[in-house]
C-alpha cells in the first residue's frame, strides 16, 4: 500500500497512461481466456462426437493450452522478471513449433537429464560429459527463446535461478541429489569458455 501511495503521489505519475497499460493487460488476459475457452469447447464437442478435430488442430490446441496454463500460473511473475516482449516472443516460438520440433524439444529435455545424471556421477562440472549437458541445455533453450536472444550471460543467469528458486532446484535435484548446483557450476564453466 505504501508503494502505491508513493506511486500515485509521484510528480511524473500519468494516470491516463496507467489506465491504458492496465486496459491493455486486461485485453491480453481476455484474449488468452477466449482462446482457452474456444479450445476447451472444441475438445468437448469432439469428445461428444459432434465435431472431429484434425490432428493439427489438436496439436495447435495442445500448444495453446500449455501457453495458457503457463500464463495463468506464472505469467505475471515471468513478465515482471523477463519483460513482456521476451515472454511474448517465447510464446510465439512455441506457437510456431511443428509437432516434430516439439518432439525434438521433449527428447532433448530427456537427454539433458540423462547426461546430467551421468556427469554428476563423474563429479566434475568441467568434464566432457558435464559440458555436453550444458551444450544440450543451450540447444534446448534456443528452441524456446526468440532467435538471436541466447547469450552466455543469460544462460548463466538462468542457471543461478535453478539454484535460487526452490521450484527449479526441486526439479533438477529430482534427477539426482545436487544436480541443480552441479548444473549451475557446469554452465558457469561452459559460458566462461
**Strand fraction:** under 5%
Chain-averaged pLDDT: 87
N- and C-termini, Cα separation: 46 Å
Number of helices: 9
The major beta sheet can be summarized as: none
* Beta strand count: 0
Uncertain segments are: none
The succession of helices and strands, N to C, reads HHHHHHHHH
Give the overall shape, derived from the CA principal axes. flat
Number of domains: 2
Describe this structure in words.
This protein is mainly alpha-helical. Helices cover 82% and strands 0% of the residues. It has helices at 2-9, 15-47, 55-82, 84-95, 99-122, 128-144, 152-164, 166-175, 179-192. The longest helix has 33 residues, at 15-47. The chain starts with a helix and ends with a helix.
Please summarize what this structure is.
The protein has 193 residues and is mainly α. The protein is 82% helix and 0% strand.
Write the layout of secondary structure elements.
Blueprint: H1 2-9, H2 15-47, H3 55-82, H4 84-95, H5 99-122, H6 128-144, H7 152-164, H8 166-175, H9 179-192
Helix pairs in contact: 2-3, 3-4, 5-6, 6-9, 7-8, 7-9, 8-9
For the structure shown, list the relevant keywords.
single chain; 193 residues; mainly alpha; Globin-like; 9 helices; flat
Amino acid at each position: 500500500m505504501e508503494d502505491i501511495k508513493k506511486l500515485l503521489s509521484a510528480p511524473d505519475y500519468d494516470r491516463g497512461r496507467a489506465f491504458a497499460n492496465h486496459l491493455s493487460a486486461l485485453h491480453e488476459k481476455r484474449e488468452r481466456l477466449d482462446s482457452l475457452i474456444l479450445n476447451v469447447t472444441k475438445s468437448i464437442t469432439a469428445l461428444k462426437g459432434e465435431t472431429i478435430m484434425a490432428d493439427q488442430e489438436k496439436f495447435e490446441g495442445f500448444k495453446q493450452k500449455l501457453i495458457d496454463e503457463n500464463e495463468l500460473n506464472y505469467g505475471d511473475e515471468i513478465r515482471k522478471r523477463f519483460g513482456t516482449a521476451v515472454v511474448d516472443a517465447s510464446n510465439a516460438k512455441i506457437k510456431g513449433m511443428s509437432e516434430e520440433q516439439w518432439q525434438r524439444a521433449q527428447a532433448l529435455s530427456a537427454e539433458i537429464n540423462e547426461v546430467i545424471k551421468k556427469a554428476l556421477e563423474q563429479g566434475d562440472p568441467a568434464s566432457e560429459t558435464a559440458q555436453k549437458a550444458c551444450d544440450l541445455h543451450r540447444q534446448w533453450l534456443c528452441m524456446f527463446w526468440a532467435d538471436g536472444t541466447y547469450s552466455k550471460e543469460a544462460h548463466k543467469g538462468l542457471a543461478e535461478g535453478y539454484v535460487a528458486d526452490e521450484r527449479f532446484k526441486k526439479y533438477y535435484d529430482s534427477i539426482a541429489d545436487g544436480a541443480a548446483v552441479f548444473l549451475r557450476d557446469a554452465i558457469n564453466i561452459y559460458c566462461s569458455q
